[in-house]
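Bug #77: duplicate submission created two jobs. Keeping one. Sequence:
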Amino acid sequence: NNGYPDVAVEYLLNVNSNFLSVEILWMITPGTMAYFGKLNITGNQHIDSNYLKKHVKFKYGEKFSKLKMEETQQELFELGLFRVLTIKANSAAMTDSLVPITLSLKETPRWSLQAGIGYGTDDRLRISGTLTRLHFLGGARKFILGAKRSYFYPLGLDAKFIQPDIINRDLD
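Kept job's structure:
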């Protein structure tokens, strides 16, 4: 987290059977100081790369930090738009102390349907369904249409339109 992606850790064990103890000698070589290099994004089909870059927690030329990569992965995954999302530093391809970063993703299907049916002694037969459309009108927008029916709830319909990042990253 302090700019060293290629730390080499070695150790020597010195076993003392008379005292039932082990002495461990750690040899830690930090490698070279590194900075974030070019960000390559692969696998996005419907979401613009610029939208994804808004959620990246590091900048080109900033000191390398594994923690910032993990925070980026968490924030992007919490958008609910990806089935698979990995972020990797390619320190073997490092040039001029810049580590290229690859963000690989697989988007969630654009359409999803959830349905439920049940029976209870109070509300008897109950049915519900939710239809979700991701990338609605392009980008990361979502449209969600829900319906439910039971004895106490004759018919309920609701629709939601979610526009992410309306003014800033924290407001949908």
